[in-house]
Amino acid sequence: MNKKINIAIIGCGVIAHSHVEAIKKITKAELVAVCDIIEEKAKEFADKYGVVSYCTDYLELLSRSDIDLVSICVPSGARRDIIVDAARYQKHILSEKPLEITKDRMTDMIDACRKAGVLLGGVFQRRTMKSAVYTRRLIQEGKLGKIVMANVYVKHVRSQEYYNSAGWRGTWELDGGGALMNQGIHGIDLMQWMIGDIESVMAYADHLIRKIEVEDTAVAAMKYKNGAFGVIQGATSIYGQEEIMFEVHGEKGTIAFGDNGFVKFNVEDVENDLKTFGSDISKFDHFEIINDMVDAIINKREPMVPGEEARKAVDLILAIYKSAKSGKMVKL
């Protein structure tokens, strides 16, 4: 397969710019069309990046025979119908996080893609972090022994102006949640990817500072299926930005790392210079994920984060919300 993979972007908001910058670096891909329900926004986006074709009706875009892959960059709770339709039109699909905001909607999307024989990939670029990849390998090789605790802290600053900047932000209907569903989901996905699936959670979540429907602050205690315990802290309400941090404790080692690489590495019989891996921040663009998706299409294989994997973080977040609302432990 020597031809380029033609890509279209649906939704010309903030995150779509990251997709374009990544696509420009991929020799086997080309951006051929963009779509947004606001015509002025679609035209401005197309003009900025030199894209000849733009439209406001995504079905018009999907009906084109020259498009192989669509990047879905619309609000979180508006993805189900577009993805189901894209599968019907035999397009491969890469969806921004979260995959969707309810279990049923995610199931509909995954089933539609499987039935149509098209690929569905999710965007979780932190899975390309060198420190995370190395930590996961050590866990899988048993170098840390039995894992006893694994924690993730995702504490950001998001002003009231941020939430007011778009009508869908901070709403249950289209954002599907707050600090966890929109920001913390990256850390939640990465922790599950490294450690394994979650058995149960007990949580608190609410809006303590921002005037929004969803949570700006959340804390959850969880039990992994492998027996380990863990904590998730997520917030957009704090004062001062903090680095996302991950902690993994096993009977034979402790590892802690963040966006700037390892901050603690103490593993029995494993030598490692904390400076070896350096900063991971340079990896936080979309290139690795989109390039992998293009390669998956060409070589007819599963993408780095298939739909079934992309939904796991959302399922956990929904369980956290259920626990926070009921005041009870929730099993996944």
UniProtKB/TrEMBL annotation:
Domain Gfo/Idh/MocA-like oxidoreductase N-terminal as annotated: residue spans: 5-120
InterPro entries: Gfo/Idh/MocA-like_OxRdtase_N (IPR000683), Gfo/Idh/MocA_Oxidoreductase (IPR052515), GFO_IDH_MocA-like_dom (IPR055170), NAD(P)-bd_dom_sf (IPR036291)
A single GO molecular function term of this UniProt record: nucleotide binding
Domain of life: Bacteria
Domain GFO/IDH/MocA-like oxidoreductase: from-to ranges: 135-255
Any Pfam family: GFO_IDH_MocA
Protein's recorded name: Oxidoreductase domain protein
Species for this entry: Ruminiclostridium papyrosolvens DSM 2782
Phylogenetic placement of the source organism: Bacteria, Bacillati, Bacillota, Clostridia, Eubacteriales
